[in-house]
Design brief:
Aspartate Aminotransferase, domain 1; 3-stranded antiparallel sheet; binds pyridoxal-5'-phosphate; Aspartate Aminotransferase, domain 2; 7-stranded mixed sheet; 2 domains
């Protein structure tokens, strides 16, 4: 692991201005408060240092990956579907990239569908498989802790398309029990979706076991592995025992807007986009060639071995845990076992995520309250609530470390945590 977190960004300059912490929220004891402070720094001020502890939200594009993408943002600009000579350079590229991705994953090329990222892969998997399999049955199963890109698909299938959905409860570590899955499967169950690793608190689910339960029962299985790739040792896609696996490039130093769905043959999810016959009739839309190439490069470079160095990250996380346990009113919610090594999440009594994150941000620390799309919103964490901690679901803080995280950064954060927590508790 690099000792130079500045490798991420230009030395003294924070890559982001401190977030404008505007908006309103309702701390439990103080009624409605409007946070209109805006940035605490003058426009041209610089925070002392930027510590990026939000790798679960996204990772920086690797320079070598960017280099591999550049021709596809420049000279190779033709539409791969065009038949004229102007597109000769581009024509075979999606299928070359598909062959590489398939080889890397241990899949058939026909089992790879390029998408725009994790959200689309999850939508295509859940909506596409449920609609394809509907003649066989009407019952679907998922868990209470999935990303909204999965949960909202199930909500839609239930409310608009007449499916019945069982949402499995989880234990205090946020984990689905294989026995609960066995009990929930019915003769009309067609699809189960349980994530490989949780983005908010880091729980690693026993997906191989869940997948084999599904296989034994003739039920199709999807796993959202968006947060898992690049973090856990990977050899072959068969390790998940899944029919559908979602992957997203920007979680392992690839480009944003690029992902893939592994769809095990012969399952053919019903397309959710309508238009041309791209991706062998499974995903209409002119290919994002630069994104696809960048994703395949990042897969080959950063997934096996994983770019997230587990032993180093575990040590850093242990330091954070030691510091946090000293602070009154804090509780760690990331599981102590079977958890992503980079993810350290906690809740704070009598405080609010927004106040905590704002307090960290003014010190230069980038953290999150969960999935990026809901960070800064007023929604309590559905994941923390599902673990049974309803009262603290609005006080989640997630530190997610990565490739450039260092011991000195962790020491710095450990040093300022007591004050940040105290200030947030005072409201
Ligand atoms: C577990 C999980 N699934 C899906 C997504 C959605 O990915 P994207 O926003 O890149 O489409 C995320 C993003 O944070 C995620 O963490």
């Amino acid at each position: 692991m690099s000792n130079s977190p500045r490798g991420l960004v230009d030395g003294n300059k924070p890559p982001w201005r401190p977030v404008r912490w505007g908006g309103c929220f309702r701390p439990r004891r103080r009624g409605l408060i409007f946070l209109v402070a805006g940035p605490r720094f003058p426009e041209n001020a610089r925070v002392p240092r930027t510590i990026y502890f939000d790798y679960n939200a996204t990772t920086p594009l690797d320079p070598a990956v960017r280099e591999a993408m550049l021709p596809f943002l420049g000279e190779v600009w033709g539409n791969p579907s065009s038949v004229h000579h102007g597109a000769t350079n581009a024509r075979a590229r999606p299928d070359d990239a598909r062959d590489r991705a398939a080889k890397f994953l241990g899949a058939k090329p026909s089992e790879i569908i390029f998408t725009s990222g994790g959200t689309e892969s999850n939508n295509l998997a859940v909506l596409g498989a449920a609609r394809r399999l509907k003649p066989r049955g009407n019952h679907l199963i998922t868990s209470a802790v999935e990303h909204h890109a999965v949960l909202h698909c199930f909500d839609c299938l239930e409310s608009k398309e007449g499916f019945e959905v069982t949402r499995l409860a989880v234990d205090s570590d946020g984990r689905v029990s294989p026995d609960d899955l066995k009990k929930a499967i019915r003769s009309d169950t067609i699809l189960v979706s349980v994530m490989a690793a949780n983005n908010e608190i880091g729980t690693i689910h026993a997906v191989a076991e869940l997948g084999s339960i599904c296989r034994e029962n003739g039920v199709f299985f999807h796993t959202d592995a968006v947060q898992w790739f690049g973090q856990e040792p990977f050899e072959n896609i068969s390790r998940f025992n899944a029919d559908l696996v979602s992957v997203c490039a920007h979680k392992f130093h690839g480009p944003k807007g690029a992902g893939l769905l592994f769809a095990k043959s012969p399952l053919f999810p019903v397309p959710i986009f309508f238009g041309g016959g791209h991706e062998h009739e499974r995903r209409a839309g002119t290919e994002n060639l630069a994104g696809i190439i960048g994703m395949v490069e990042a897969l080959e470079k950063f997934v096996n071995p994983p770019v997230f160095a587990v032993p180093d990250l575990k040590k850093l996380k242990a330091k954070l845990a030691g510091a946090l346990l000293e602070i009154d009113g804090c509780e760690i919610v990331s599981p102590s076992e079977s958890c992503l090594a980079n993810t350290f999440s906690f809740v704070v009594r009598d405080a609010d995520s927004i106040a905590l994150l704002a307090g960290l941000d003014v010190e230069g620390v980038c953290a999150s309250s969960g999935s990026a799309c809901s960070a800064g919103s007023l929604e309590p964490s559905h994941v923390v609530a599902a673990t049974g901690r309803h009262a603290s679901a609005n006080s989640l803080v997630r530190f997610s470390l990565g490739r450039f995280s260092s011991a000195s950064e962790v020491d710095f954060v450990c040093g300022l945590l007591p004050d940040v927590v105290r200030r947030a508790q005072l409201g």
